[in-house]
Automatic annotation (TrEMBL):
Positions of the Phosphofructokinase domain: 2-240
Lineage of producing organism: Eukaryota, Metazoa, Chordata, Craniata, Vertebrata
Residues annotated as transmembrane: none
InterPro entries, per database record: ATP_PFK, Phosphofructokinase_CS, Phosphofructokinase_dom, PKF_sf
Species for this entry: Gymnodraco acuticeps (Antarctic dragonfish)
Catalyzed reactions: beta-D-fructose 6-phosphate + ATP = beta-D-fructose 1,6-bisphosphate + ADP + H(+)
Protein's recorded name: ATP-dependent 6-phosphofructokinase, platelet type-like
Cofactor names: Mg(2+)
């Protein structure tokens, strides 16, 4: 555990990435050791920043209050993941920056295709099992179709999309753009869709594919994410300060009110009942 002072975080607002470091390990079998470290270092509150794994980890710590008094402290989570998949929240820190990178890349690809007629580009985005990046990126970049996990599709849908692009090539806009979320379908992979479009569009249009990969996770944060991060962090610290005062007055507490997820639009009891059953 390292103490961080104001001088250590200077300039972090404009830097991308995770400067504190990240790890996907869930608490699970380490609950006893975590409780021991909280007691040794006299930790009075937790502010956890992360995505779905951080969300799940904090819920596990919250549930462990029944067996470990050390976890009866204010706990707050800030959703921060480009996948934007933290349950109960509308927006995660980093999603807007990744979305900007996707749209910018799609715009560049469309620009490169402007001089080449009858070409279809298939772009794979990140996002895990959440189709936010692919969906909103597709809307913003004017994609012809988007494949996401939340909306199952089959070979008939793929054939219909190929037919749509075939008809489109007869118009003045002789190019196509298709976005696919990385986990949209286990069998209809990006390579499969690329090969299908290439074969079915033979003689009408040709295909190119592009897997954006980790370029979506790099770069400087967008202005929106910079402001969003500052605001939610300030709100979180204010909540922790208020809750700490109440905790000192009443001692250790197990109430739901001492556990929050910033930006949550459903109750903690709902999450406990629907996600940890």
């Amino acid at each position: 555990i390292k103490e961080i002072k104001w001088g250590d975080v200077g300039g972090w607002t404009g830097q991308g990435g995770s400067l504190l470091g990240t790890k996907r390990t869930l608490p699970g079998k380490y609950l006893d050791k975590i409780a021991e470290q909280i007691k040794i270092h006299n930790i009075n509150a937790l502010l956890v920043i992360g995505g779905f794994e951080a969300f799940e980890s904090l819920l596990k710590l919250f549930e462990a209050r029944l067996h470990h008094e050390e976890f009866c402290i204010p706990m707050c989570m800030l959703p921060a993941t480009i996948s934007n998949n933290v349950p109960g929240t509308d927006l995660s820190l980093g999603a807007d920056t990744a979305l900007n990178a996707i749209v910018e890349t799609c715009d560049r690809i469309k620009q490169s295709a402007s001089g080449t007629k009858r070409r279809v580009f298939i772009i794979e985005t990140m996002g895990g099992y959440c189709g936010y990046l692919a969906t909103v990126g597709g809307l913003a970049s004017g994609a012809d179709t988007v494949y996401i996990y939340e909306e199952p599709f089959d070979i008939r849908d793929l054939q219909a999309n190929v037919e749509h692009l075939t008809q489109k090539m007869k118009t003045s806009i002789q190019r196509g753009l298709v976005l696919r979320n990385e986990n949209s379908n286990e069998n209809y992979t990006t390579d499969f869709i690329y090969q299908l479009y290439t074969e079915e569009g033979k003689g009408v249009f040709d295909c190119r594919k592009n897997i954006l990969g980790h370029m979506q996770q790099g770069g400087a944060p967008s202005p929106f994410d910079r402001n969003f991060g500052t605001k939610v962090a300030a709100k979180a610290v204010q909540w922790i300060s208020r809750t700490l005062k109440d905790s000192y007055k009443g001692g250790k507490t197990k109430h739901d009110e001492t556990f929050i997820i910033s930006g949550l639009c459903v109750s903690v009891s709902y999450l406990k009942g629907h996600l940890l059953c």
